[in-house]
Specification:
Elements (H helix, E strand, L loop, with lengths): L5 E5 L9 H15 L3 E7 L13 E4 L1 E4 L2 E7 L3 H10 L4 E4 L4 H13 L3 E4 L4 H7 L6 H12 L4 E4 L2 H9 L5 E3 L16 H6 L6 E7 L8 H14 L4 E7 L5 H7 L4 E4 L3 H9 L3 E4 L8 H8 L3 E5 L2 H6 L7 E3 L4 H13 L1 H15 L4 H15 L15
Helix pairs in contact: 1-15, 2-3, 4-5, 8-13, 11-14, 13-14
Length: about 400
């Protein structure tokens, strides 16, 4: 019988917040606890935590608003609080999911107390910076991220393409930890005729769906142009555009796409019903480290169109269970979407294969692999970062 671990997990975001990172960390944390491990989550206090206090499984820290992400908090440095807690109850290993001041203070404390650290590369902040008017900082941010992650025993990345890119940029000791999907929740059987009717979609119409944050980094201009291209290329088809999600671009997109139905943010079974009630899923983003929504759409039996990177590259075989385009090739993206509608058999076959593939991508194996990586860090020499500048 293997020994249970005491794991500290540090993150700026965590359920019930709604984003891909929070969803992944929630799944990993729940999976580790189900395996008998003791997991202490360290995160900033959020608005939903009013009146809540820290306990053995949760350490709340101070934070401040994260620009462009209303409702989220950027964690402040918590060196003294972490040192006090970890000297009293020392973790076996620390997992740092975010690289801000909170993550940096956790890294410093771990080095001081000689606790092994595994880090995760969950968000392409160096790419996002350009979309929010901080393009000049992108190179500096990449240097900081490389320095940060190279001070951990191991850095986990969600896709093979991400690992190749980071290796090219000088990141070291990278390992792949993919993502899973709850294929019982996201299932074609949840398709709802009444929901489709509320969208104004009849039985003979195809619903073109998009799920995600409505923000500049998501390349949503291509979503609108691709939908219009489908309408022009297939005038015999009746198409309806449905957008699930919220974000800073929602108001302007509602003005640009008056024909679209905007559903706002949806969660749990309601979200799964929205997926299953669509037909075609367009995902034009170029900034994802993974893209959980791709797997959710596949599990829901949708015809997914995406760029050949991250989750799509890992899980979609073009023409078999989805349609792919070379990253940045907008014409190729439009052609991939159009191919699905050229023949009813194309879409029918792809949707069946999508569901079949995703049904085998559960979280249990991912959690087991995560546990193995955490255990491996216990046996990694502490001297691996020797020769690098001290982190405190």
């Amino acid at each position: 019988m293997t020994t249970a671990l005491h794991i500290a997990l540090i993150s700026e975001t965590f359920p019930p917040e709604v984003n891909g990172v929070a969803n992944t960390l929630g799944r990993l944390c729940a999976g580790l606890r189900a395996r008998g491990h003791r997991v202490q989550v360290v995160r900033p206090r959020q608005s939903a935590d009013r009146g809540r206090h820290s306990d053995e499984g949760l350490l709340l820290t101070r934070g401040w608003p994260l620009p462009g992400y209303p409702g989220l908090q950027w964690g402040q440095s918590a060196t003294s609080k972490l040192l006090h807690r970890w000297k009293r109850k020392r973790p076996d290993v620390i997992y740092i999911a975010t690289e801000g001041p909170l993550g940096l203070s956790a890294l410093r404390c771990a080095r001081r107390l000689d606790i092994p650290v595994v880090s995760g590369f969950h968000t392409n902040f160096q790419q996002y910076s350009g979309h929010y008017g901080f393009g000049l900082l992108s190179r500096l941010l990449t240097r900081y991220l490389r320095w940060f992650h190279n001070h951990s025993q191991l850095t986990l990345v969600p896709s093979a393409s991400q690992r190749m890119e980071l290796t090219r940029r000088g990141f070291e000791r990278l390992e792949l930890l993919a993502r899973g999907v709850d294929s019982r929740l996201f299932h074609p059987a949840r398709r709802s005729a009444s929901l489709r009717a509320a969208w104004g979609a009849g039985d003979d119409e195809l619903v073109v769906l998009h799920v995600g944050r409505l923000a500049p980094e998501k390349n949503l201009g291509l979503l609108g142009s691709s939908f219009r291209n489908l309408q022009a290329a297939h005038p015999q088809r009746r198409l309806r555009l449905v957008v699930v999600g919220d974000g800073p671009l929602r108001a302007s997109l509602e003005q640009q796409w008056p024909e679209a139905h905007f559903c706002g943010m949806r969660l749990g079974e309601e979200l799964a019903t929205h997926y299953a009630s669509g037909d075609l899923f367009l995902f034009p983003s170029l900034s994802e480290t993974f893209g959980n929504v791709v797997l959710e759409a596949l599990a829901s039996g949708l015809g997914v169109v995406a760029y050949d990177q991250a989750a799509a590259a890992q899980h979609i075989r073009h023409g078999h269970n989805g349609a792919l385009a070379e990253p940045g090739d907008e014409q190729g993206f439009n052609e991939a979407a159009s191919w699905l509608l050229e023949d009813e058999e194309n879409l029918r076959r792809v949707r069946l294969n999508a569901r079949q593939h995703a049904s085998h991508q559960g979280w249990e194996a991912i959690v087991g692999q995560f546990e193995d990586y955490l255990r491996s860090a216990l046996h990694t020499p502490a001297e691996l970062a020797a020769g690098r500048p001290s982190v405190g």
